[in-house]
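job 3f2a | input accepted
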Amino acid sequence: MTTLIESEEHRSLRAAVSTFAQTHPHTTNPEDNTRLWQDAAKLGYIGVNLPEAYGGGGAGITELSLVLEELGAAGNPLLMMIVSPAICGTVIARFGTEEQKREWLPPLADGTRLMAFGITEPDAGSNSHRITTTARRDAATGDWVLTGRKVFVSGVDIADATLIVGRTEDARTGRLKPCLFIVPRDAPGFERRPIDMELSAVERQFELTLDDVRLPADALVGDEDAGLLQLFAGLNPERVMTAAFGIGMGRYALGKALAYARERTVWKTPIGAHQAIAHPLAQAHIDLELARLMMQKAAHLYDAGDDAGAGEAANMAKYAAGEACVKAVDQAVHTLGGNGLTREYGLGRLITASRVARIAPVSREMILNYVSHQTLGLPKSY
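job 3f2a | predicted structure (382 res):
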């Protein structure tokens, strides 16, 4: 029942975040966005999922996704919440050394430091089996040396470090296996180049080049032989949080459309009284609610320690939320007509932004591949 009916504590958290978010009008100003991040962190929202022992709220992805959804529903989704506390914070909390936890978790929780996440590559996408960024040990010093490229890495310019997915050679088989490394932003050989995106977003996207980046032995997060397990411990929360991002955006767009449909009058009748307007908005609401249920299921499974069950549900939640978000935004724009494309109403920019929930961090087609193969037991097609 916990996945169907929110607890009083969760309802209170949702109401508090919503009230807080309404005090910060939508902005694309980086300084305003930073202030929003810092204010949210002071209230414990940014690090709500991180361990109490390291300054976090001691809750889980369930609570963190709720926070992001409500921020998005108010028009202020914080994209870096998906990356810094959800992916990087989770991986370090679960697999990091005590030293790594002490160094990174408190500032990630209180918002004074951010961490980016680099997995996607120009040729491999986010397929961990085809990643070509390699990490080799320097036998003389014990250091790691990383070489490779990453693309579509969010917020590298504002992050203090990037959690990079590389691959090391298995001494027994010679095969490459994924491993995670903390790369400081000022590491020699670590270069970034902004990607020119047609997105109206505060957070910018970057291409990274790692040219023999030398890291100390303790830059490795977790066990060198458990990289895939550790990787998906971060990717499942990423999918849940992307679902929250999409649901929040969809709710924001739907709210704008509902307000307009109640007020806009044609022939003395609000346009929302007409089924051609009302029914598509009702359908958008239903789709968003269904996506939220699957997101809550995925978050609860993850927080309960069921990584396998969470993986399936998180993929489904991300798929459902992406579809619901795009439909809600499209219908909102159609409801407002020409006004839906004006800067005053702020919906036009969401036409592009809503597609992010469909294609990132994994495309809907790859999720369908996953479900058809892993869930339905059909032959693998790729």
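job 3f2a | The longest strand covers residues 144-154.
job 3f2a | closed
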